[in-house]
Amino acid sequence: MATTLSRYADLPALIGLMTGDDKHQAATESTLDALWVLYDSVLNISPDRADDPGRDRLLLSKGHGPAAYYAVLAAKGFLSVTDLRSWATFASPLGHHPDRVLVPGAEISSGSLGHGLGLGVGTALGLRAQGRRIPRVVVLLGDGELDEGSNHEAIVTAGRLSLDNLTAVVVDNRSASLGWPHGIAHRFEVEGWKTRTVSGRDHTALHEALTGPHAQRPLAVVARATPKGRAA
Amino acid sequence: MTSPATAGPAPVAGATAAGHRGRSGSRPAVVAQDMRKAFITAVTSALDTDPRVAVVLADISADRFTTAATRHPDRVLNVGIREQLMIGLAGGLALTGMRPVVHSYAPFLIERPFEQLKLDLGHQGAGALLASVGASYDSPEMGRTHMAPGDVALLDTLPNWTVHVPGHVTEVNKLLPAALVGDDPVYLRLTTRGNTAARPVGQGLVTVRAGSPRCLGVVVAVGPMLDRVLAATSELDVTVLYTATPRPFDRAGLNAAVAAAGQADVVLVEPYLAATSAHEVTAALADRRHRQLCLGVSRDSELRAYGTPHEHDRAHGLDVDGIAAAAREFFLV
User: Could you list the residue ranges forming a coiled coil in this record (chain A) (predicted)?
Assistant: First the structure.
């Protein structure tokens, strides 16, 4: 559908239509810029190609605080403003955690942390097995989510299998309770990933990090965000 | 996790070609089956003919897929000892249109990655064929860690699963072609211990022995329990029904068999947790007063014992004598 609220500057207004998820406010703020850059200038995806097997895919593993995600999907025409207004009501397709069966454009259902990267590895391998070399699979995670051991099963395996069609974007708002000594990128590097760490607010830096070369290796982009609990 | 990743099926203690003999009868009750071999052969063949099929392993049986992996390196995927990823990866494959075939020991396939089954398959609207070995206690010398009597009950908390529990290797070969195509979630529970003969599969409850119009009731045997049920009830006037596919449960078939019997008394004999299908019997017979007895692996306590499968059958009352005694008491004969 056509939408007039289609600019980055419109996103706060779109997010403003969704109230009542204050618990996840930090997650909403931290993911907004990375999601915008991905949908605006990195991913080859649009509403009319939502079922095209050759499309790029964004898997939102960090499924909490999805207001930014829904706002970007609305700005790009996957969702209507009406959908946003009714969010979290019984008949709405939009809840506080997204359901791929209900949300146009959502590649996965998420909410329970630590599921997106495994699904991303499988999606990347499925595309590889079908000889589809073009589509990218991008998984958006949070640093706190990396506590889940399932991510480490996926990080190791993607590195060993040289899944160069897989990208992990880790939004780091330092919410992991026990922290990640030596930085998050290190966890990916030692397993064979190409890594880049950039400011999560800098659209140019995010774009370059997401589109730069990473020959034969999966790519991890760590997007530093305002630490959870502090004012932006 | 310690598992015989490279070992073949251990010799099945107490499951010989001659089988066990009940105290009073001479009919064989447990016959060795190499269902794992049949499964691997069929899937290896399917990899050659169906480009949708992809095998996902977590080391278990990986040595038996080496030739297939050489021919189809992009579709035979061994992720090492990583069961959460095994299921998550299968979900991702399914989202791209592939048909994942996931295989491991039952506890590591169903219990350890259960949230992945719930979310990475079910909640995504994705399916896979899961094929387990080990059953409830095929190798009790390995202890509780390798026993999964609760696998079917656990899957029963999720909607839409087809569950196959074949009792003969030929049934495995008959069930696999349909399970390997499509997009639905299917669980194939393989075992080393089954029946002397294959029975019809894929058509709901099958009448193996029909009781008289005044018979005592109906006995339902699931998969490998059939020969033991037949031996245990040989002197009772009952109808014996068989299925290798307890989900979806053939409620209409059970209702019709009970309607034709002298009494609405049902004994359910399953090779996994006792009363796993009790709610199905209840739903099937909601239109009539009925009694039911559910035999299976005991829920009352954890059996801390090694030994042989037959010894575990005896401990759970699932050998011929145990089933016979329970059935006679239930039918008041």
Answer: none
Each residue of B14-40: pLDDT tens digit? 444 334 444 444 445 899 999 999 999
Query: Looking at residue B10, what is its pLDDT?
Result: 40
Which CATH class name applies to B206-330?
A: alpha beta
Residues in chain B, overall count = 333
Beta pairing, strands A166-172 & A137-142: parallel
- Is A136 in contact with B104 (CB distance < 8 Å)? no
**Banded model confidence at residue A231, pLDDT cuts 50, 70, 90:** low
Q: Could you give the CA distance from residue A131 to residue B332 in angstroms, rounded to a whole number?
A: 65
* Average pLDDT over chain A, rounded to an integer: 94
Between the alpha carbon of residue B157 and those of residues B103, B184, B232, B279, B299, the distances in Å are 21, 16, 31, 12, 17
> Contact, A34 vs A51, CB < 8 A?
no
Sort residue A120 into left (φ over 0), alpha (ψ -120 to 50) or beta.
alpha
The boundaries of every CATH 3.40.50.970 domain in chain B are 34-191
Write the CB contacts of B194 (distance below 8 Å, at least 6 apart in sequence). Answer: B30, B31, B32, B33, B35, B166, B167, B168, B169, B223, B224, B227
Task: Give the minimum alpha-carbon distance from B7 to chain A in angstroms, rounded to a whole number.
Answer: 24
- Interface contact flag, B90 A124, Cβ < 8 Å: no
Per-residue pLDDT for B278 more than 80? yes
* Rounded (10°) CA dihedral B253, B255, B257, B259: -150
Q: Which of B74, B84, B123 sits opposite A129 (nearest CB)?
A: B74
User: pLDDT tens digits for B299-312?
Assistant: 999 999 999 999 99
> Which pTM does this prediction carry?
0.94
Superfamily in which the A21-64+96-224 domain is placed by CATH: Thiamin diphosphate (ThDP)-binding fold, Pyr/PP domains (3.40.50.970)
Superfamily of domain B34-191: Thiamin diphosphate (ThDP)-binding fold, Pyr/PP domains (3.40.50.970)
The percent of residues in chain A predicted with pLDDT above 90, rounded, is 90
Tens of pLDDT, residues A154-211: 999 999 999 999 999 999 999 999 999 999 999 999 999 999 999 999 999 999 999 9
Contact A60, A105 (CB under 8 A): no
Phi, psi of B121 (to 5 degrees): -110, -70
What digits encode the pLDDT tens for the residues A66-97? Answer: 999 999 999 999 999 999 999 999 999 999 99
Query: CB-based contact (8 Å) between A125 and chain B?
Result: yes
Please answer whether residues B79 and B93 qualify as being in contact, where contact means their C-beta atoms are separated by less than 8 angstroms.
no
- Cα-atom radius of gyration of chain B, to the nearest Å? 19
